[in-house]
Write a structure and sequence with these properties.
Chain lengths: 387, 387, 387, 387
């Protein structure tokens, strides 16, 4: 148990170090991008050229150091070449290499530093949604491609039609099909710059049709992406929740279909240490299961600590009253939230769960052995300590 | 029972007073905002300066009085400092304080009164959807952040690319990355002002890609927000309906899964007093449960009053005929609507409900003891008094 | 039965007359609107003034005649005043009265005829979706209002902010709050005319935020309307299909939950007389139930007629082969379509339906007593006459 | 079996030939369209006129040859006239005929070659989504028409209103209703060219309303199309998957409701030959059923081949570990993917499937008779050869 505590402390420390490192990285990123932008502003770039250059070189140095450390051969890590070929490694390489190379090959300083915009890609691996989006595009490739072909056909036919109709009147705007295509793109996406506008009657009729088609294409695109994203998101959440649900002994003992149903209902909540989860006196609209970490229920004579596998906040659901105690995490914790609507729906179909929750609460209370002040609205259920 | 009647009357009176007060508040708000706007119009502002100033000071006085009354210490209310720190209190403070402070610190009158636009925030607590929106954004924070990062990456990379390609030809529009970013924002959101338009071939190709990405980003955004909003809306409605359903004795006696199912189907309807709910002769496509309040069924010899817990409008669903009586609320009431499609679906799976409804109707009819004129299309079911 | 046949013929005749009348009405509408538009074109309006005026007066006469006939007191129809106060009656009045009134009160001819645009409202009652839309807006009033308040708050705050920031540089565009509001509206809706564009750095930052908010507001709006529309559409379709399903004896005999399930699956198809429903040799992906009307199955020695309550097209679903006979409606008919995916899903859960369909097919075949040429791919099932 | 192998080889060869032919066709299409566009660019078109003309004639020749071959009368194919009247035939005709005809009837060369844009229609039959879209539009015709009528009414009324309000100030833009309509279309679709902008106060109020209506119309349109597309897509996928599922003996033996449920869960994956399906060491989030084709499981002493009807990748789902072997297709194959979330949900409700999978795996292992190196994380389940 002592070993477990040490491991826990180490993991908390590692987490803190990691998140502190991440904040430093974001700051360097923001400063670097700001300096790059400032450099391109004629006046400012000339006046503070030295300072901006120093800043940019520092940022580059930081990213180079990061790349070196990450790709350094060491036990328990990927080998350097393998890391450099993986996704994050490639992004790190893209952040460091192009700028010196461009300077080496004689590109003007101002232009070379524009490559610093590639640093923004460092955000990509952090964001979970990007890989999600990749999968959605892969899975919905066929309908998306269909819509894209419709887009292309409407684009080209309308561009040719407007070239025919408008080239006499506006040769500089519709004089060739590529120019006409530019008009078609801005119109079909309903961007509408207004730099090229049809002026003949027929041209305007076709333009109106193109706009309406644009709405349709847009609608399909939106629908496909949104539906696919929602489905993939749900699927991924299910897989993550499943691992968490099966780590809670109390939930694991339910029969398989119930576990599946509950996994679909639960929502994951990752909290840092010392965060307030539930505040005394507030209305309660959900209960919590602790998948990992620990919380402290701030009861009057003496607070109570609940570890992984426990649950709290159920009394507010059972009697509809406000929260009776404040609950705070003591370390970074992962909780599973069960909304009141899902709780009611689930216990209606599985009355044994409500039974188990009440039994468990009674058991925990008798183990403590301290009778709490009664509760006016629901005196039948004893010991509503952590609501 | 007499006490109950008095309480009811008091609550009705309170409601009326509250809604009358709200109308006054809205009028003051509208007049104040109009005066503020008029003040900024050069001619008008100069001509009627005095009148506008008087109007604005009156509105400010109204809101100051409102703030004072609301934060006055009294029994059964929050203490003043606590109210001022709550959401509505902060909004009330924002409406009153900034303008005098700005005038005090020497801001020109015209500029100071522009702060009156903060009065519009008074609408925020009234609108239930705003807190809903807050929760949706909180819950969908991860996917929304993902889409935002995609947005940022596309934005910066396209801005840099167009800066490179167009700075030679249009230095005043793409001469620096921040200027180029302005173009990128207007294009990626498909706003398309047309003040900055790429002119090179490659620049236009990239612009076309940015527009198409814009549609995609937009689609994801729309999808995430809309899905989250719909889910949260359903959840909140469930919780509200649950409380109402469990206040109807007739529904409370169903088994738990049926209550859950029914709670999902019902739709809440808040009506003022003396409102027509159902009009005789109109086609009937739903039945009503009374969660609170009272209605009057306008039957021929003598009207019948139904209180909380009763239901009406069921005969039109049972035989498909038109409504046989007009029903009017006698006081502000909350009804629960069951659509005909849900009614049929529910009674198909729970034939005992249809049974209960018929029994209840028969019971109520025999209690009245007055046989009604028969109904041509469905003579088998007796006593279709309030369809 | 003879009486039934006559009634049927009369109803067919009435339907034809009604649809012929509708086509005439649409033509008059189109011609009238075109003439109204032509009148406003300077050259054309002057040159053919007489012809256009004659056309417009004729159209007006047509609509006046229509109004007179419809509101004429007669048996079985609404009384004139009641008709004039109903929705369609008001639209008919709006089409006829305003133009003579405007001319009477001395409006110039050109302006008076612009009121002919009200004729377009005649399309409204024909389109079922409009009342649907009305109900959606009524039901989703709360969330729609919430989004509208968000829209208003963003609009006003951004307009005031840009007024402050840009009034010095562009007084003619941002010099007053109403002018600034115009910019805010065009930006928040992502229309982006480009007639007013912020030029200061801060102004552009705020504009970018407004555009992104615009996408969000738009997304919520879209989501709420689309979800509500879909739900209401499904509900209405259920009610319509229910009446049709219960008119097919074969379906009516299923147990209640199955009828509900089937009603959700079926799709209604209204066909004119002498329309081809199914063509021999084409792949079959659905089967049909006849809710009303009659079809002719073009079998080789002699065609077979199927009336209301019958079904056809089931063999293609049972064995996956192409259609074996062409089916044509003999009169305006309403069919219910069951898609192959729903058919398989339904028969998997209700094997008795597949049984019933096969039995019914066998019964019909033996009643005819003519053995048909065998079918290569599925010889086990006898009598695949009308696939 | 030998015959079967030959047929298989022929079909693979045919597939390769077909896909090689398709690539050639796409190249010709791209080159032809590029040449057509280049011809319209004044400078380029004049300088390289000969080369462009030769290129275009070659492309036309290619399409003409294609048409001739496809419509040539031969055994097992449609007769020429019938082919020419079918969808793809008409598209082939449209690609070949119009250009020579236009040249014959004396159209200028440049204009005649613009008809080459019709070549793009050749993409249409390839894209499965187009026919899908056609069906969606057919099925959702009523609500789409409703929205279109709303669109038309808003369009015409706002155009007339702005004509009235703005014709005095901007006669060249709002001087006639058709011109005003152009403004209304660009505004209602939120395209916003900015070539016509209202300048009166009332005109701007109406324009703001039109923009907000535009968002609403857009939202409905989007919602209807997206919902319809998603539903039709699911339906079509069900039909395709059903045929595949019933070709896997192992799945066919499940009871009917389970097959339906599984068919809804599975996702189809078409792979070329020699494609890696699963890579050793990667996390596993799905299992695969082979509907047609063959895969090679790269096991250590000797690879194992699995043909149609087999499944693989199930161990990663059973114990949550990484993939233990790489799997590669040996020929073009169609696989059915079962995601881990669906797998868990399905086996929870149908424990016999998990049983069958384990039994089948054990059977296959004992048939091979070669004990494999144990697996550290889950030694209880024997023979995890192809995870």
């Amino acid at each position: 148990m002592s070993q477990h505590r040490i491991d826990e402390l180490l993991s908390v420390f590692g987490l803190l170090r990691r998140s502190a490192y991440r904040i430093v990285q974001y700051c360097v990123l923001a400063i670097g991008l700001a300096a790059m932008m400032a450099m391109t502003i004629p006046d400012l770039g000339a006046r503070s050229a030295t300072w901006l250059a120093v800043t940019l070189w520092c940022c580059l140095g930081f990213f180079a150091a990061e790349l070196t450390i990450k790709s350094w051969p060491r036990a328990g890590a990927k080998a350097a070449p393998r890391y450099l070929l993986s996704g994050p490694g490639l992004i790190d390489l893209l952040a460091v290499l192009p700028i010196p190379l461009a300077l080496l090959f004689g590109a003007p300083t101002g232009t070379a530093w524009l490559l610093a915009s590639l640093w923004l890609l460092k955000l990509a691996p952090v964001v979970p949604g990007l890989s999600l989006l990749g999968r959605v595009i892969e899975q919905e490739a066929r309908p998306l491609a269909s819509v894209f072909v419709i887009f292309l056909i409407v684009l080209l036919l309308s561009a040719v039609a407007l070239h025919l109709l408008e080239r006499a009147g506006q040769p500089e705007r519709f004089g060739s099909v590529p120019r006409s295509l530019w008009w078609a793109v801005t119109t079909l996406t309903t961007t509408g710059y207004g730099d090229a506008v049809p002026e003949t009657f027929l041209g305007r009729m076709i333009a109106a049709l193109v706009m309406i088609c644009g709405l349709g294409v847009f609608g399909l695109w939106t629908g496909i992406l949104a539906t696919g994203f929602a489905a993939e998101h749900r699927r991924r959440e299910f897989v993550q929740n499943w691992d968490l649900v099966t780590s809670v002994p109390f939930l694991r003992n339910l029969d398989a279909p119930s576990v599946i149903e509950l996994t679909r209902m639960l929502r994951r909540l990752d909290l840092a240490g010392h965060t307030v989860v539930v505040r005394r006196g507030r209305p309660g609209d959900c209960m919590y299961f602790i998948a990992s970490g620990e919380v402290e229920v701030r009861l009057e004579p003496q607070p109570v600590r609940l570890g992984a596998g426990a649950f709290f906040g159920e009394f507010a659901l059972l009697d509809g009253g406000p929260r009776t105690a404040t609950v705070v995490t003591t370390m970074p914790s992962t909780l599973l939230i069960l909304e009141v609507s899902d709780f009611r729906s689930f216990t209606a179909h599985h009355p044994e769960l409500a039974q188990t929750i009440e039994t468990e609460a009674a058991r925990r209370k008798s183990a403590e052995g301290r009778p709490r002040h009664g509760h006016a609205t629901a005196p039948a259920i004893p010991g509503k300590r952590h609501r």
